[in-house]
Amino acid sequence: AHLDRIAAVDGDVHAFLHIDAEGALSQAAASDARRANGDALHALDGVPIAVKDVLTTTGLPTTCGSKILEGWVPPYDATVVKKIKNAGLPILGKTNMDEFAMGSSTEHSAYGPTKNPWKLDRIPGGSGGGSAAAVAAFEAPLALGTDTGGSIRQPGAVTGTVGVKPTYGSVSRYGLVALANSLDQVGPVTRTVLDSALLHELIGGHDPLDSTSTTTPVTGLVDAARAGGTGDLKGVKVGVIKELAGEGWAPDVMAKFNESVDILTKLGADVVEVSTPSFQHAMAAYYLILPAECSSNLAKFDAMRYGLRVTPDGDPSAEDVMKASRDAGFGDEVKRRIILGTYALSSGYYDAYYGQAQKIRTLIIEDFKKAFEQVDVLVSPTSPSTAFPLGAKLDDPLAMYMQDLATIPANLAGTPGISVPAGVSDVDGLPVGVQLLAPVLEDARLYRVGAALE
Ligand code: GLN
């Protein structure tokens, strides 16, 4: 049924870069056989899933939305991919994304943008717009995304889906083509909070192949979502983040956000205002730390080992080939960040830029700590506006970066976050998302409050 749906709508939506109909059908048949045999099944056995094209998949292309990896078929599965395969989830295909996960609209994909299923002239968010659109368009019931600065949560908000960034280190990054290693996390994209909890528990847990993997078991999320589903939030303290509201936030988004806060109060939560003054510097710090890390990560695409190779005429040196290949293989946003990152890391500038950004990162971690001494979870709108028209911010990188004002602090601090649908805007009828944030390793709180709000 999902393959039929993809055939019917993906020509318009373009959520997928590769569709693996044959593989998905044979995995589905194997699941049917297990069921017929009376085998013990995982709760999601046989439920199809779409995978962001930044996660490696044996035998299926992995492009990261970039021309530089066009045609590359990885010889290994990411740990999260291995886990979903082992649990019997058929993989429908790989989803579109901004090139190397840089962007907030999926327009930086080298393979053309994904459209928002709610309105095809609107962006589906980014960088994981393909995963969010696939779920919103009923092409897939579940998807995997990655969130480095909001790429699961912001697409979730603008497509009316649920998106979760787990605690840093609690889901393996092995086989996730790194954007910024200290910020990246894999997480679920679904239509309900309970579905996210089921998928999150499945993909989470320690992985010896990831040196930053935590050893704490990832459990209790499904129970928390079920408890939240009863709608009782008595005893839960919720903090509204003062700095993530007001000026710069669209009035229609704020209206829906305020309604959600009222619902939390009605369900028995104790809602107070909390201040996190360093959050206003989060974006500036992020756009130094992220380019610094990604400029180093992307150095491996040198046209020698894999991916695109462009050989200039004449008698080119290896360096000439690298230059020509990287020039042809990377898009403008990727080049912009490589230049920014190498500049910020160069000797003489390191302390002034990278060092300062790291200090802000510490202040943000301290702001979170202080806030969580007062409340159990924090709440804010997920993104400043509903889905904007395709092309509207393409020539203005700063305007694009502003989409992640509210989502970036959690990546800098390693804390978990969820975006939950909060209804549609009274102005344009498009979805609005509410973001919940919890302390490190307290992801269960997101599910309890998220399921109550849903
Ligand atoms: N939009 C942010 C960026 O461009 C977030 C990216 C992400 O989370 N992968 O960096």
Summarize it.
The protein is an alpha/beta fold.
Radius of gyration, in angstroms, nearest whole number: 21 Å
Give the class-level CATH name: Alpha Beta
Tell me the span between the first and last alpha carbons: 26 Å
Percent of sequence in beta strands: 5-15%
* Helix-strand makeup class: alpha/beta
Say what the CATH topology is.
Answer: Amidase signature (AS) enzymes
Which CATH architecture? Alpha-Beta Complex
Domain count: the total is 1
Shape: globular
| Spatial order of strands in the largest sheet | 1-3-2-4-6-5-10-11-9-7-8
Biggest sheet descriptor: 11 strands, mixed
Q: What name goes with the CATH superfamily?
A: Amidase signature (AS) domain
N-to-C order of helices and strands:
HEHEHEHEHEEHHEHEHHHHEHHEEH
Bound molecules: glutamine
Number of strands: 11
Low-confidence stretches: none
Oligomer: single chain
Mean pLDDT across residues: 97
The count of helical stretches stands at 15
The helix content is: 25-40%
Please describe what this structure looks like.
This protein has 454 residues and is α/β, with parallel strands linked by helices. The protein has one domain: Amidase signature (AS) enzymes (Alpha-Beta Complex). Helices cover 39% and strands 13% of the residues. Strands 1-3-2-4-6-5-10-11-9-7-8 form an eleven-stranded mixed β-sheet, with helices on both faces. The site of glutamine has 13 residues, from loops.
Q: Main attributes?
A:
454 residues; alpha/beta; Amidase signature (AS) enzymes; 11-stranded mixed beta sheet; 39% helix; 13% strand; binds glutamine
